[in-house]
Amino acid sequence: MSNKKNSLAVAICPPKDKSKDTDMVNMLLNGADKKVVCGGSTAKVFARIMNKNIEVIISEVRNEIPPKAYIEGLDLVTEGLVTLSAVNKMFENLNLFDLKNDTNPIEYYDEFYDKNKAKKQAGSIIQQIIEQQYHDSPAKDLALELSRADSIQFILGTSINQPDDIEELTNMKLNKQNVISELITQMNKLEKKVYVSQI
Predict the structure, then answer these.
(1) Strand arrangement, sheet containing 34-38
(2) How far apart are CA 101 and CA 167, in angstroms?
(3) Each residue of 22-48: pLDDT tens digit?
(4) Nearest partner of 149 among 128, 119, 109, judged by Cα
(5) Domain-by-domain residue ranges, the chain?
(6) In sequence order, which residues have a C-beta less than 8 Å from that of residue 53 and are 6 or more positions away?
(7) From CA 35, how far away is CA 87, in angstroms rounded?
């Protein structure tokens, strides 16, 4: 994905093959205007490859959402699944116009504007609602970054934290896949240009 205004790249989970850590970092840094990393293990990979420190912003712990962190060169660093799940709920709960049956806000505005203006107007309304309905948190920050972007590249690592037993491992894999799949679905509903890379 080319580096352009209103583009966002989001790295989630480290690569399973550690030899590809540098590839993931390069994909994010060279892929978009805004750069986001989700997950503590993923953040450690980026800090190591970029030779930067991780600063956890403890003062922003709120509403059971883990704190965000700061790594120089990145726009946002958050925890993983808990934050992503909260972001999904934010988009699921957007009652933009009290319309039923999951009416797409872009389709609503299509009646009044051309497609590009409809997307811009819907995006503006979404951002206003997120700003007004939710307390400040890393999940809100991520939701706003997603809502502002016209194109989004998800860079998905295939590694997961190793639990004690096989059943827990299977559940973790399914949970991660479901959360990420739902987020991509939400972005497609908003007619973002979505690109997915696995590494």
Answers:
(1) 55-56, 69-70, 76-78, 34-38, 7-12, 151-156, 193-198
(2) 36
(3) 999 999 999 799 999 999 999 999 999
(4) 119
(5) 7-198
(6) 47, 71, 72
(7) 17
Tens of pLDDT along 61-93? 666 889 999 999 999 999 999 999 999 999 888
SS (H, E, C) the chain: CCCCCCEEEEEECCCCCHHHHHHHHHHHHHHCCEEEEECHHHHHHHHHHHCCCCEECHHHCECCECCCEECCCCCEEECCHHHHHHHHHHHHCCCCCCCCCCCCHHHHHHCCCCHHHHHHHHHHHHHHHHHHHCCCCHHHHHHHHHHHCCEEEEEECCCCCCCCCHHHHHHHHHHHHHHHHHHHHHHHHCCCEEEEEEC
- The letter for the amino acid at 186 is Q
DSSP 19: G
Residue 70 φ then ψ, to 5°:
-125, 130
